[in-house]
Specification:
Layout (H helix, E strand, L loop, with lengths): L1 E7 L3 H12 L3 E7 L3 H9 L5 E3 L2 H4 L5 E4 L6 H8 L8 E4 L5 H11 L6 E2 L1 E3 L20 E4 L7 H13 L3 E4 L2 H29 L11 H7 L6 H10 L1 H23 L3 H21 L2
Parallel strand pairs: 1-2, 1-4, 2-3, 4-5, 5-6, 8-9
Antiparallel strand pairs: 7-8
The structure holds 1,4-dihydronicotinamide adenine dinucleotide and 3-(4-hydroxy-phenyl)pyruvic acid.
Length: about 290
């Protein structure tokens, strides 16, 4: 049971956590914090938070759990604001999509890694932003990755694990570096492909006429290109090493595919498509 939860960044991710914990009766009071007044007022109206402040240092007063769910570029500023204002028993965790940058931001702001810090990442989301887009079921049967550090207090880790399990999530722990490599492949690369494809088609055909002839496959493939541009700029900058390596590797694969098409190598194309189809079918089966 959390007595007072401070949610810094009451958007899709922070709002959904607050909603899920409230639904389960697992939290006493929820204090929201953000920059956009209208979003915070809406969060109170929707019953996602009890009250709000626009100052992170005020939001964490008396909180036993602090969840930071702002874009990655805003993490360091938030950590700096709260660094000497946390209650002695408070646990701090986050939902940022890249963990190396969050840990570096925390190191800089807290001047070392505080034992109460449990970096985390729910592998769940949508292309929509803001509290309006949040919903209590977001984390049900989804994974949450935690990347505890040698300094992390086991009790803080246990409290964050329990919090996510109450929301219906399955918690896995891994290293910061492994997290950032894996997510570069499974999340950041696909977002780059969707953004890149839509932008390139839109620029090729300026009046958007081409999109009229798009089928379901185009819509499925490009849903994530509607995601928040600021959030994705921050993810790219925060994970640029792993993502650059992934993009370079993927570029080679695309060149190979293009070459096979150019030289009409049907056997090689079939080999690629059959391997891809069976990998995706296995993946979909494993998520049923
Ligand atoms: N959208 C998604 O599907 C997922 C996002 N994430 C991560 O979760 C974090 C939050 O993302 P969303 O909830 O989607 O974004 P969002 O845009 O819905 O919410 C972010 C909130 O943070 C507030 N904010 C921005 N700068 C701030 C600052 N300096 N101080 C206080 N509040 C500030 C904004 O006003 C906004 O309400 C990001 O770090 C993102 O990488 C993680 C998993 C999935
Ligand atoms: O909209 C989708 O399908 C996503 O993939 C959402 C998402 C975005 C960022 C993350 O770090 C995790 C999940």
């Amino acid at each position: 049971m959390i007595e007072r939860l401070a949610v810094i960044g009451v958007g899709l991710i922070g709002g959904s956590l607050a909603r899920a914990l409230r639904r389960e009766g697992a939290v006493g009071e929820v204090v929201g914090c953000g920059r956009a007044l209208a979003n915070l007022e809406q969060a109170v109206e929707l019953g996602v938070i009890d009250r709000f402040t626009q100052r992170p240092e005020e939001a964490v007063a008396g909180a036993d759990m602090v969840f930071v769910a702002v874009p990655l570029g805003a993490m360091r500023g938030v950590f700096s604001a709260i660094s000497d204002r946390l209650d002695p028993g408070a646990v701090v965790t986050d939902g940022g999509s890249v963990k190396g940058s969050v840990v570096a931001d925390a190191m800089a702001a807290f001047k070392g890694i505080p034992p109460s810090l449990v970096p985390g990442h729910p592998i769940a989301g949508t292309e929509c932003s803001g509290v309006e887009a949040s919903f209590a079921e977001l984390y049900e049967n989804r994974r949450v990755i935690l990347t505890p550090l040698p300094e992390t207090d086991p009790d803080a880790l246990a409290r964050v694990t329990a919090m996510w399990e109450i929301c219906g999530a399955e918690v896995t722990c891994m290293s910061v570096a492994h997290h950032d490599e894996v997510l570069a492949a499974t999340s950041h690369l696909p977002h780059m492909l969707a953004f890149g494809l839509v932008d390139s088609l839109a620029r090729m055909h300026e009046n958007d006429e081409i999109f009229r002839y798009a089928a379901g496959g185009f819509r499925d493939f490009t849903r994530i290109a509607s995601s928040n541009p600021v959030m994705w700029r921050d993810i790219c900058l925060a994970n640029r090493e792993a993502l650059s390596a992934m993009l370079a590797r993927f570029g080679i694969e695309m060149t190979d595919l293009a070459e096979s098409i150019r030289r009409a190598d049907g056997d090689h194309l079939l080999e690629i498509f059959e391997r891809a189809k069976s990998a995706r079918d296995r993946y979909v089966d494993s998520t049923r």
